[in-house]
Amino acid sequence: MKDIEDLIQKAVELQSNGLITAQIADELNISRETVVWLLTRSKKEETTPAPKDISVNWSSIGKSAKRLHNVSLALCDMVLETMEKINAEVDVVVGIAANGIPLASMMAYELDADLAIYHRKGQESVKTGHRGIISRNFGSVAGKNCIIVDDVITTGSTSTEVIEQLKEMDAKPRVVVVLVDKKGVDTMHNVPIQSLVRIARLD
Ligand SMILES: O=P(O)(O)OC[C@H]1O[C@H](OP(=O)(O)OP(=O)(O)O)[C@H](O)[C@@H]1O
């Protein structure tokens, strides 16, 4: 119960800082439906039963470079296992901004690969068909074996977008690797999904 009260407080705080529902959902790693539920509940209004969702807080890893490094080693190990199966080398590690960047940087160093950063566009831009970009300040992806790194998969829309975008750029997305996979699928667009923790609902 305390966790729910904490989440309500955090959601209200983020809303009062000007964040919209989608941004609050991303920040708290929960669905938009859950954000609406939390905000409704904060007003003590009648609410429907809570949506089936799981809140992920990985700040105990994120606050420590040493822990991030250790976790990135585990993610590299999983990636290499997958890459061995398809007999391919990692050319580029693509970190999804913002949360995928620290892990992707450390993984690129460990794998002796280039680092690329993918910036998503806002939700409105996505609706109108504009997608994100690979930052010019980092590596390029065309023609290269890429692994995609992020913190959490919730709906999978971010990973799907990046896979599609990389394919359009003639890159070869080989694996998506995350800390926590809340969606629990094996592949997206035929690209394998690897996670340290995979959540599976039993109901
Ligand atoms: O599977 P999905 O439903 O697409 O959600 C997962 C994405 O949401 C969060 O990113 P966000 O868009 O908040 O960007 P941020 O890393 O800048 O917070 C998270 O870091 C993932 O990238």
TrEMBL record:
Keywords: DNA-binding, Glycosyltransferase, Transcription, Transcription regulation, Transferase
GO biological process: pyrimidine nucleobase biosynthetic process; regulation of gene expression; UMP biosynthetic process
Any matching Pfam family: Pribosyltran
Gene Ontology molecular-function annotations: DNA binding; orotate phosphoribosyltransferase activity
Entry-linked InterPro entries: GfcR-like, PRTase-like, PRTase_dom
Keyword Glycosyltransferase part of the UniProt annotation: yes
Domain Phosphoribosyltransferase residue range list: 79-183
Entries under SUPFAM superfamilies matching the protein: PRTase-like (SSF53271)
Superkingdom to which the source organism belongs: Archaea
Membrane spanning stretches: none
Annotated NCBIfam families: PRK02277.1 (NF002620)
Domain characteristics, as noted in the entry: Contains an N-terminal DNA-binding winged helix-turn-helix domain and a C-terminal regulatory domain (or effector binding domain) resembling phosphoribosyltransferase (PRT) domain.
Family under the similarity heading: Belongs to the purine/pyrimidine phosphoribosyltransferase family. GfcR subfamily.
Protein name: Transcriptional regulator GfcR
Originating species: Methanosarcina horonobensis HB-1 = JCM 15518
GN (gene name): gfcR
